[in-house]
């Protein structure tokens, strides 16, 4: 209710600050019987962690996750899964200066005004470091959704600053530090190097998808699948826009183009991005997000301090010149958490539907090629 | 939990179908002592209602609202406010044909698969008619926020199909059927007339803002003000994208440009759209949404029926050629509901903060020109 | 969140005041495909309604329920079910006098202080009349639980004032105005007549049970089945105590007596009341509640008015001399709502468990006689 | 939603198992600016912890709490407060035998059936050890409520098995191992010694109160203060009954006795237990609970194993012969958590009420002596 729990049936409660002793989360509602170990989670954490290339922050955090509860003899028991990540590299001295100042583009000003107090060490609670526990929780959701429903969650970089990145293949994504779906990232490297030398930063556009999502997930009127995805994505640090399917292109499309035709063997296009009326269609979920340029830059910025006096802020320390670069596994995780939530919700209310639906098709002597609800 | 309640502290539970006996909502959590009558609500409902120009559906619904509870002698009592709108113009004969077919771009296919049953009359529950109770609830929120905090919510059309609409003045918005902020809408009228003759439809882009929002609203990590706005907007029928502040432009901006500078007398720009770290900055909230073209068009479309047989769908009946036209008051209402929720949440947790914050400023002998939390 | 919604997955939002135009509720989360008409609901409402004997209030309300939404061609669609009951017998003149006074034992004083305003007509929102929509919602839950799981919910009077009522048979319950499980109620009638003549009122003890509840319902640590039952029961107007199973007798029992022995064919006793560790055991749920004497009595009482001046309060009007008499169907309904909620919750998280559980038993070549989870 | 979070605005998410590496909780929604250190929490943990007398389990756990987040320079920041208690004395060998058996009176049978898997070490998740994090969270709530509103929470033993304990003075409570409000506990010691020698256990009755609670807390219709107290108390391990105020005595009371008279200087009695219509009256909250006898006893009990075969269960290990003895600080903590939640909720919706209420009194030229809402 104070905003630190994501989800309701698969509820992830996040805690910690950038430079406190530890960060972590508690997952409540995980189905029992899922095989789970730290190794199942560590992989995605390693994809997100800092210090892996010269294009991201040089803070060196191993981000090793420990399971404190909810798993017995290698299987989830249905009780809360507490995940702990200790903070090991906390150079608080880098941040001491800014305790009295508000960095432009950061949450310093708003936290201080909202709470009357803030933890300034490394951005405290507003640090993107707090996405790590969500990546960990997302790994648990991904595993259950993969094993139970065969779903796959993938993301890639679609644009860095001015450079749009064409989609060549998912196979390239793990082979470069940008999560770019292209074989050759030389241009991206040069672009980032120039930016870093200029003491500036840039934004990014990320695409994230889910395949294997069955028809029927989403709870209208309000808890629509697309609404919950928008909520999840806009809640990621630095995100300023979210699109589903055709997104902004919908504005200039005609109705004769936008509405995806349906055939006995499936849809002919996916302008809907896999969602109609807030409910999944069985097609791939297609989501795109815009990420603003990093606010922590060494170029001096005009601001005020806690006494409302003008100051010039120069942010030293170790920062990502494009926070979007590390956002891909985060966006995947958040999408998986949304789908997980809705898979459980759907089963709660509509767990009996399959029979009726199958009967209806049987009566007609025909089977639909589009995916069918299969939650019983 | 099944998705028909919006908000938690100011919780609006929506019910009804397009062609059932009535639609409505129950508002739980309204502060007591607010002067409220049907007249306070009817104004916004009239702005949204159909049949007001040749550019929107000719369905003729007066959309007269009745207050069933929660108000005594003209004031809210703090108990649930039930609002009822009877459906009066239900030409169900127009829709009988489509009970067995799935209209492309509509929720027919997904509702049928999710629930195993659907009310096909006028789109049933998935009809945009169900936004009317939200406009009514939004009017209650707007009234409290205006009287208690001086907030103003406004929206306007920014683009219809291919025609971008410059912002001239809020004063023009009520004077044309498009909610366009321009004096001359002849081009828009011609564009819509041509579209209607072609049996086609188009999308739209809507801008919605809030002024007077104090600093401090929003609950990170997840229930950020921008995340909740994205949730609210993406949940409106036909919305496919949401931007906050600079939105997609953030991708190509540099950090030296995007981060809004702060001075003792306020911010120098508003790329943030009034939100930093998920918390309001005291600047105007700036939101833009993309609305897809109407899916109900008379041009024939390729689809299937409930037996998975191919069919050609032609949607007759009375439909808006651009559903975006009537979306402006809806978007305003949803924004007001989000802000209302967060105003109450903030007061719950941080109701004591002002004293501390004011003391801190007094100690320094300086008063901040930027808006301060004032929830005590 | 402001307390007018009961349940989360099967969420019932209640609205209305005793003398407003209507009362009702919205049920969100009902599984689709359930046959439902007004007649399925009216029966329980008739059991609860006033004016049926000389031992209850003579207010004459038909309490006719209308379904406004969520049902199409006689079946639930999975969308919100709005139920409306119009108030027809509103003799507000009986209550005008007390608008400025606080009746002892009533909520007048607390509502006025909490909200700064209250609807005094017939107790307004605090009237037991608001239990009618819960009885209606409970009837929907009972129907689904009966059809899907074979559950039966029953209640009876266990004590009126000083008269303890032995349990003879459920068959007697519908045959007397007290819901007493005995053939001869002459003593009860005489007791009530004397009480009414004395201008006084008395309390009651009600027993309510559920049979056919499968093992496995309840969500520890907090949302235990017994905790949620206690919440539901204590929330009924005038309830002051709740017991599960052996209840207060547990205090003086020994461990060797209290813990119910288990055999391959079932439990040997039910001190647990059907719940262990917050989860149903498969035995009958056994609940007892204490209801305080009616606070509205014609004997003069000492109190104050809104100006803190001493007054003598005499409550005229039409009141039940023992509100417990009409509480039996209410308690049944609330128990059914709790079980319904947990049936859906269990299916959400543990919908896959049966297979594992059945396999484990198969491996052992033995089938448990105690009920098994069967939610797939 | 899976039941491991208590509260909504002051939300405590509990995790851990009796013999896992650690137990703990995350508190979300604590007001910022509260002075808080481990020492503020440890006191109540020490009152609850095992091993303090021969009358409780000899498991020796220091139950040392660590604050992992949410506190900066000794003050709460408004972000989640994670509390960690490491398990140090985990003699799992004591419990190995029972992994395949269901102990009568325990949650073994229900957990195994619900989840298809359970952690049998020390009762796993169903152990009363999981009340420790609630005592810790309750200490935080108590501190805020004491500093902000002057509230005091106290509990004492009212009955152990057959021995009713008269109330002499709160001063005696900390001076004996039973939390008994009497000077001489020799009879209790003898009773417990005999019980332990007999290999048996007994139940208990606990009284818990709150003083200083202002009028106005509680959210009818459902989230009534008494309903939430019943929920909290019944959710404590081994509790089988809950009373508010006169409780079961209400059944035999007359209306002329039960309804507490009101005078300009306050109420004349407290049968209501401090709550009318679900809202606090300003009087002391008075709650009583019944706790069943410990189920873990060395006397042999009849049961079955996971293969539904009959077994004889003898529970060795270290157990409390009367779990009620250590329940007093737990009940206090749960009551404090309920009141804390409602203090924040009330401020959210009714934060403006005081002015209106005060004005009304000023107009009348009289001030009420009964406590007034003071949440602004």
From TrEMBL, chains A, B, C, D:
Entry EC number(s): 4.2.3.5
Keyword Cell inner membrane tagged: no
Cofactor annotation: FMNH2
Keywords, ordered alphabetically: Amino-acid biosynthesis, Aromatic amino acid biosynthesis, FAD, Flavoprotein, FMN, Lyase, NADP
Any one GO molecular-function label of the UniProt entry: chorismate synthase activity
Residues at which FMN binds: 125-127, 237-238, 277, 292-296, 318
SUPFAM superfamilies named in the record: Chorismate synthase, AroC
Pfam families from the UniProt entry: Chorismate_synt
Residues annotated as binding NADP(+): 48, 54
Catalysis performed (reactions): 5-O-(1-carboxyvinyl)-3-phosphoshikimate = chorismate + phosphate
Pathway per the UniProt entry: Metabolic intermediate biosynthesis; chorismate biosynthesis; chorismate from D-erythrose 4-phosphate and phosphoenolpyruvate: step 7/7
CDD domains per UniProt: Chorismate_synthase
Enzyme class: lyase
Keyword tRNA processing attached: no
Cofactor binding: number and manner: Reduced FMN (FMNH(2)).
Function noted in UniProt: This reaction introduces a second double bond into the aromatic ring system.
HAMAP family: Chorismate_synth (MF_00300)
Family affiliation: Belongs to the chorismate synthase family.
Subunit structure: Homotetramer.
Protein name: Chorismate synthase
Lineage of source species: Bacteria, Pseudomonadati, Pseudomonadota, Betaproteobacteria, Burkholderiales
Gene name per UniProt: aroC
